[in-house]
Every structure is written in C-alpha cells, then in structure tokens.
Amino acid sequence: MDSCLEILKDCESCGDLAKIRSLRQNEESELVQTEAMKEQQEQLVSLTNNVAKLKEEFDFATSEFESGKKANDNEYQAESSNLAKVQKEYEDAVKKENNEIEFLKQDLGDKRIKYEEADSLFEEEIAERRRELEADFEYAKKACSCYMSTVLPLTSGALLSLRHPSVFLNDIYGQLADRMACSLDFQ
Fold first, then answer.
1. Where are the domains of the chain?
2. Which residues lie in coiled coils (predicted)?
3. In b/e form, how buried is each residue of 80-109, taking b as 16+ CB within 10 angstroms?
C-alpha cells in the first residue's frame, strides 16, 4: 500500500488529478472493506464462544440428570423433562449459530473476492499509468535527441558562419538531410 501512495505522489506532478482521486477513493473503499471483514471475524469468534457455553450448560444438565436418576421417580421424570428441554434448546441454538456462521463465512468470502478484484484493478491502473509515463518519457527523449542532433548543430553552424561563411554553406545541406532523416525516423 505504501508503494501505491508513492506512485500516487509521483503521479500528482503529472496533473492527472481525476485519476489520482479515483485511485485514492478505491484505496479508502478497500480500507473500509478490510475493517468490515475484521468485525465479521470478531462476530464469528463470539458466536463460537456462545456455542461452547451452551455445550457446557448441556453437559451440566446431563450431569444433573444422571444424579437425578438416583432420586425418586417424580424427581427423575422432572429432570428428564428438563434435560429434554435443555437439549432441544441446545440443538436449536447450535443450528442457529451454525447458520449464522455459514452466512458470515459466505459474506466474508464475497467481500474478499471483491477486495481482490478491486486491488487487481488498482494495480492494473497503476501499471497502465506507468506505461503511459514511460512512453511519454521515451517520446521526450527521442525529441530531445533529434533536437540535439539537428537543430542545435544548425544553430551553432550559423554562429560559425559569422567568421567562416563558406563552412556554414558547405555543411548546411548535409545537416538538413540528417534533420529530415531524423524527422522521418522520429515520426
């Protein structure tokens, strides 16, 4: 992410503010999605803890039931009914918690896919911008080279002609031919 910010800082000097703003908005959106994923993971841990507590309650009720068997029949029947009720509540709670866990896993997976797609798009945009900047740089380098090889020698030749007019006149035709060849090659 830091390298992306450095690239964005480099791009600010290019004047492409609309693209920079779009890239920054994508980065902020990714940060919001990351925070949402963290919250969902915390909810998942909380739900798992709730299931563990319900299991402890169920185990405790089972233990109580086993000790109740040793009491009279009325107490045994009451404990049996209570155990069935607790077991039903436990099974319903586990089913509900499992459904919520599956939903959160699915939602988390969907968000992760969206995040990866956005990240890939962001990287492609940066690569495209880098290619454009490199092409612009190569174009400027070629233009500078053409200028240095044609226009600058003509100018310096004109200065030499102040002392040696024949040198300038004899040499200018050769330089103009080079200049035209460079221009054709440059296009």
1. 2-136
2. 24-114
3. eeebeebeeebeebeeeeeeeeeeeeeebe
